[in-house]
Amino acid sequence: MAISPIITFSNLLFCTYFLVISLLIVSPSAIPEADQRKTFIIRVHHDAKPSIFPTHQHWYESSLRSLSTVTVNSDSGEASRIIHSYDNVFHGFSAKLSASEAQKLESLSGVMAVIPEQVRQLHTTRSPEFLGLKTGDNAGLLKESDFGSDLVIGVIDTGIWPERESFNDRDLGPPPAKWKGECVAGENFPASLCNRKLIGARYFCNGYEATNGKMNETNEFRSPRDSDGHGTHTASIAAGRYVFPASTLGYARGVAAGMAPKARLAAYKVCWNAGCYDSDILAAFDAAVADGVDVISLSVGGVVVPYYLDAIAIGAFGAFDAGVFVSASAGNGGPGGLTVTNVAPWVTTVGAGTIDRDFPADVKLGNGRIIPGVSVYGGPALAHDKLYPLIYAGSEGSDGYSSSLCLEGSLNPNAVRGKIVLCDRGINSRAAKGEVVKKAGGIGMILANGVFDGEGLVADCHVLPATAVGATSGDEIRRYIQSATKSKSPPVATIIFRGTRLHVAPAPIVASFSARGPNPETPEILKPDLIAPGLNILAAWPDNVGPSGIPSDKRRTEFNILSGTSMACPHVSGLAALLKAAHPEWSPAAIRSALMTTAYSHDTRGETMLDESTGNSSTVMDYGAGHVHPQKAMDPGLVYDLNSYDYVDFLCNSNYTAKNIQVVTRKAADCSGAKRAGHVGNLNYPTLTAVFQQYGKHKLSTHFIRTVTNVGSPDSIYTIKIHPPSGAVVTVEPERLAFRRVGQKLNFLVRVQAEAVKLSPGSSVVKSGSIVWSDGKHFVTSPIVVTMQQPL
């Protein structure tokens, strides 16, 4: 879901032109160095503070003053250049620096790293029932965990609309005794808005304003209040209370509920109109851990960089080290490969799948053909028994490209008025295209996917009668328009809205937009970890934003239907809270292991889940370990556990320097032992991925060492079943694990052998299988992946 202001195409052209001219005229050397400053995050040795400084803040201020001939004296009332100070998940601060200042600062004693800030973007119900979480059960995860009542989920997002019924505190006791957070008052958000459900709310805008100047408070709240909708939606998915009746414009009627209905919420607002800034995100991680959250849910992402340059990875490690489970969205860059984000192995990375509900809105063409589509449109519908003139936007505007995309100002009202308009997907938001058509006088819109989008469909709350169709269907409609025009029989169509359809099969399906592997930073760690419901999810919505998200949309609704890995992530966050409540002794790694080893890769037909973009079978690169299965995750039998020092060894084997490892982990690293003990793939992860560089070799082999912890019955015997990847030989030693007590750990060795395959330079092939440990009751499943790469 985009949070940037809508930019018209004409303005974009003007800005681009102006930028080019400016670059031609103005030399960088002519710009004062202070005006070239950008935000950096500075990692320091916490114990390196000279004793002359009473606090770390004084040390940081003095270090900044030493960089410039311009005196920056906080004691004299002059504004501090420090944006945030960090004390919990990270030791250091953030500040605006020029390139030369950053270089000087990095050379100072006690400074370990100077990290450039990234700007992140948001990755934007029936799902509890689809996941098997039913309130009427006499047993199960909801009952065993008391609906998560003593757990706190921190949601790092766009804030929250606290008045929504999803956040009521009826029948909840006081916050957990460990809770140290607070409700920070701000614009239109008195502290009294927090309650026994929403027990904390903070906002972080210093990084945003350091780059963009003071926020425009006419369209943003300087407070935890949500002016976008994304944060309210994700928070209620994770932990919304039961609300009945719930619907969006009459669609998806029923009970709305989050995954952990009695879990407490803390909202940390870091995303603003221009994006989500690393310095603010890291400050939110720092505060959340100090406040005492148990789970952090982050539906935000950006470019994949090495972990020591990734503020989210660094903040998430600090949270993991404090016992906090961190889940993050995989991103919406699918269906292409290498698009997954938030790939650090201490983060649970969540992709998106469908549920068994959709919102059909079909196109009926003048030739009698019915084209399937989806929509959440709740206004006056087009007549079913009448056909309306139909045009393709790309053939009607002066600029075919702009008009084909229905960009602002691109449509000719004389050509569009009174007609249904076919628009191509891309550039501006899907709902914004409908507004463009409506303003030009169109009476309806058909939104066609491009080739990259494939056949994946997303239902939107359009401002006029509109539906979305797949790429193949879009091509068919264009051909019909062309042939009808040639035959001098005007093309006509109508849109038939069929409401809400349940028990859709097959389900689940991997959503087309869901980001895919392989992992671009560490190919030996399979990402995403798993998938959860993320398509057309009903959840709470603020009262100041229309359901389409367009400023001109004055409709108001208590719930909205959105899609994205942003929606999938809080499903897992809520489930993690339930598991932590049911098993307080489990570590974040144990919780993730339980979710992954009990996940499934089949659909309601009993066959491998489909890929929505192609209609073909999906792969482990699409869904990781599979689709989350909450009830089985409560009793996984065995778990693959990890601690912070296991990750230090992992970073050693990733060839990180001791300094870079300390930037991430705050721990001194001696890598000599780690490198002797194994390789990157030996991290005790619930999946096993072998990456072979062929280099002319005919036979290739590797091994994995894994440790499993018994969390099932005290006396249990597990035997192995191997499903090797095609063309590979997999052996496991021993083939039998005998446990005598709960908490006992046993090791096993996996050997993988594969023969080289014929590949063109720079190409690769991926094959997958699995190993399953079972005691007859539990089936502990780990995907095993073999990637063969042919170097250039």
TrEMBL record:
Q: Which UniProt keywords apply?
A: Glycoprotein, Hydrolase, Membrane, Protease, Secreted, Serine protease, Signal, Transmembrane, Transmembrane helix
Instruction: Kindly list the residue ranges recorded as spanning the membrane.
Output: 12-31
Q: Which residues form the Subtilisin-like protease fibronectin type-III domain?
A: 682-786
Instruction: State the GO CC annotations.
Output: extracellular region
Claim: Nuclease is one of the keywords in the record: no
What domain of life does the native source organism fall in? Eukaryota
Which residue intervals define the domain PA in the entry?
388-477
Give the record's family classification: Belongs to the peptidase S8 family.
The cross-references to SUPFAM superfamilies, in alphabetical order and at most eight, read: PA domain, Subtilisin-like
User: What organism does this protein naturally occur in?
Assistant: Sesamum alatum
Q: Does the keyword Signal apply?
A: yes
Domain Peptidase S8/S53 intervals: 148-616
Protein name listed in UniProt: Subtilisin-like protease SBT1.5
Q: CDD domains in the record, alphabetically?
A: PA_subtilisin_like (cd02120), Peptidases_S8_3 (cd04852)
According to its UniProt entry, one GO biological process term is: proteolysis
